[in-house]
């Protein structure tokens, strides 16, 4: 937006530029042009000076030419007719004896970006490709790419394309790289430039002459080439060997990516390449650039998926520095969790304990979560640290510890006694809703072991009118109901008060409906209430699934040296069970079998449909369901909206096979009570009461492995039976 007073400014500048006395003095004339550029950069609309600036470009002063060209390129699209006036000057400059003037004229002729001027630009660009000065050839090559981008529908002359291919052997390395970029842009619709054996070996032999970004460009283009024989493959790998340990991280990453593309059927070569880049990656983790450090850490996590012990001896390199930003500290802690073994567990836990009191709350919570993940294998040491952190009585630390203990007890039920004894009195420190929900869940599942559980619940119930979180209220209802089943005398009065408030006074419909559900359940009798609420508290067999098996390199090779590892890591910084599922709009009329059968031409898949009788699933909160799935490495894709009928959950996971990883897609479908009763009335089978508690599970796996699919179904069934009974 132009500044106020811009008209006076433009009038004054025009007066200076048109003054013959100023034009006769080169320094004063250049100073006036500089004032125009300064006004333009400050937001003043100086488009009215276009004619005066066109006249000013007819000079031998290179500095003045550059200033004028900056102006012309900025306002050419607003004055396409007046821009024709500058073409003759630019074409004349393209024949100037000074190569700097020629290259400057070529660059700005293309940067005018006016399709009507394309016919005037082609001849100077063609002459520029054969110019004796390398700087002019560099500009001319990229000029053809810009011209094609300006008119994508028009075809570039085949003679120009052939000339660009010929310039791949130009003695100037920058011209060669610019030719690669130009050909990739011009031939984009044809899949890019053609890569054959002579071109490949020529580019590899000249790799050492290029700068960092030139090497990366060559290595990226060479990923499309496939060697014709094994001997040629190893010749190429030998030429790339020096780049694999390059001190420049971009070159090292691009080279390793090319290695992985060329050797999909040679796992030994790929693993050897991963071993070789260990040193450069560790050096990148110590770079002065924060961005380089973060990117290196993300790619190290990718490598650890196939080589878990790759960085085991260098775990101290991932200890956090005091001045490092929080996102780097959190990523380092994720790597440290992957490197834990019997030899270093004590030192790693001691280091993570120090991070738990970091001034940044997110970093402290990430450290506590890391300790919890290690606790699935080393529960005693981790529980000792977590219990000690509760004594600090800091709100964010206590909340993170309680949530971590909840996740740990789910997987390792042998920890429940220690956790129950540590919960005494921590409710006074908890203020956030996630921490209070975790505490209430623990009291619901193991309330009979916590002596002060009724008194803790009484404090929550007394303050229920001031509670703002519906999630806490629903968890409180479930906890009070489950505690009433095992300790009725101590909780009967509290339960009555809570149900009365939630039914008569509560404004949130989810809370009110859950209270009505529990009230009607109690009227069915204690035996029925105990049967519904008495689900399994944990599944000890799930603990063996926490450790991630080594994946084949082909699983992630295509995402190496891209932004994908950075995006994947972003979701892992959130601790398991803390994130709320995203309610994604989905077409409820489509069934999973229809979606998956879209690729029916591929026969290497297997489908499976089963019904699981699980009364808690249709009433389970999304938070609990997602937390349960994440504990066994099952990822949720989408949920239907709350209280929708039918209610669906879409999920996926990867099952490890001998040679490759199989993808399993799944759908949980609860059709609703009314639809189930209609279906049961039309067919022989279970009673409507039994049908309404069934969830239809539809699975599809590719490639085919029925044994792994049956194993996944058994694990999924075990997870569903551990879910708490909670209104959605």
TrEMBL record:
GO term, biological process aspect, one: vesicle-mediated transport
All copies of domain Beta-adaptin appendage C-terminal subdomain, residue ranges: 586-721
Membrane topology: Peripheral membrane protein
Organism this protein belongs to: Gasterosteus aculeatus aculeatus
Domain of life, per lineage: Eukaryota
Family per record: Belongs to the adaptor complexes large subunit family.
Name this protein carries in UniProt: Beta-adaptin appendage C-terminal subdomain domain-containing protein
Subcellular location: Endomembrane system
GO cellular component, as recorded: clathrin adaptor complex; endomembrane system
């Amino acid at each position: 937006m132009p500044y106020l007073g811009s008209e006076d400014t433009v009038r004054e500048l025009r007066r200076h530029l048109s003054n013959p006395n100023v034009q006769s003095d080169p320094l004063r004339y250049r100073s006036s042009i500089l004032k125009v550029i300064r006004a333009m950069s400050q937001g003043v609309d100086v488009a009215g000076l276009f004619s005066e600036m066109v006249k000013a470009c007819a000079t031998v002063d290179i500095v003045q030419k550059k200033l004028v060209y900056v102006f012309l390129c900025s306002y050419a699209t607003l004055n396409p007719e007046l821009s024709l006036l500058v073409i003759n000057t630019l074409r004349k400059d393209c024949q100037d004896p000074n190569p700097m003037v020629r290259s400057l004229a070529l660059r700005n002729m293309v940067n005018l970006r006016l399709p009507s001027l394309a016919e005037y630009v082609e001849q100077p660009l063609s002459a520029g490709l054969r110019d004796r000065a390398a700087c002019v050839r560099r500009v001319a090559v990229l000029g053809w790419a810009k011209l094609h981008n300006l008119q994508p529908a028009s075809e570039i002359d085949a003679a120009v394309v052939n000339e660009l291919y010929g310039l791949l052997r130009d003695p100037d390395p920058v011209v060669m790289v610019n030719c690669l970029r130009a050909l990739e842009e011009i031939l984009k619709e044809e899949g890019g430039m053609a890569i054959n054996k002579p071109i490949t070996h020529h580019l590899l032999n000249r790799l050492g002459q290029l700068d960092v970004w030139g090497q990366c460009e060559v290595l990226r283009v060479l990923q499309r080439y496939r060697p014709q024989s094994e001997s040629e493959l190893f010749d190429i790998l030998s030429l790339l060997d020096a780049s694999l340990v390059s001190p420049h991280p971009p070159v090292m990453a691009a080279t390793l990516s090319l290695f992985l593309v060329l050797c999909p059927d040679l796992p030994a070569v790929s693993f050897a390449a991963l071993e070789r880049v260990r040193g450069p990656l560790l050096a990148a983790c110590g770079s002065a650039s924060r961005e380089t450090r973060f990117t290196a850490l993300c790619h190290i996590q990718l490598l650890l998926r196939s080589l878990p012990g790759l960085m085991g001896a260098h775990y101290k390199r991932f200890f956090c520095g005091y001045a490092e930003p929080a996102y780097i500290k959190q990523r380092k802690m994720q790597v440290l969790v992957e490197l834990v073994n019997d030899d270093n567990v004590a030192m790693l836990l001691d280091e993570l304990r120090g991070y738990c009191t970091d001034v940044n709350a997110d970093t402290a919570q990430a450290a506590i979560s890391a300790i919890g993940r290690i606790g699935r294998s080393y529960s005693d040491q981790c529980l000792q640290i977590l219990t000690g952190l509760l004594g600090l009585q800091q709100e964010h630390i206590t909340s993170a510890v309680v949530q971590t203990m909840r996740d740990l007890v789910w997987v390792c039920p042998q920890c429940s006694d220690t956790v129950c004894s540590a919960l005494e009195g921590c409710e006074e420190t908890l203020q956030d809703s996630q921490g209070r929900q975790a505490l209430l869940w623990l009291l619901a599942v193991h309330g009979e072991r916590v002596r002060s559980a009724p008194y803790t619940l009484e404090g929550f119930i007394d303050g229920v009118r001031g509670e703002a979180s519906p999630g806490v209220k629903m968890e409180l209802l479930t906890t009070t109901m489950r505690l009433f089943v095992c300790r009725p005398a101590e909780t009967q009065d509290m339960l009555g008060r809570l149900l009365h408030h939630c039914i008569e006074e509560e404004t949130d419909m989810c809370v009110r409906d859950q209270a009505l559900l529990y009230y009607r359940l109690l009227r069915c009798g204690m035996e029925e209430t105990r049967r519904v609420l008495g689900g399994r508290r944990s599944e000890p067999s799930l603990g063996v699934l926490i450790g991630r098996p080594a994946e084949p390199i082909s699983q992630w090779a295509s995402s190496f040296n891209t932004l994908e590892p950075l995006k994947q890591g972003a979701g892992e910084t959130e601790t398991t069970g803390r994130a709320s599922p995203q309610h994604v709009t989905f077409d409820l009329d489509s069934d999973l079998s229809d979606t998956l059968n879209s690729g029916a031409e591929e026969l290497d898949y297997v489908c499976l449909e089963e019904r699981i009788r699980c009364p808690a699933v249709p009433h389970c909160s999304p938070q609990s369901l997602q937390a349960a799935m994440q504990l066994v490495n099952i990822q949720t894709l989408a949920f239907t909206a709350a209280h929708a009928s039918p209610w669906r959950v879409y999920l996926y996971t990867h099952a490890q096979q001998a040679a490759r990883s199989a993808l399993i897609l799944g759908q949980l479908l609860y059709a609703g009570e009314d639809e189930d009763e209609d279906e049961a009335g039309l067919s022989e089978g279970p009673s409507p009461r039994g049908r309404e508690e069934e969830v239809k599970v539809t699975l599809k796996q590719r490639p085919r492995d029925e044994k792994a699919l049956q194993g996944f179904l058994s694990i999924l069934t075990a997870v569903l039976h551990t879910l708490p009974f909670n209104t959605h």
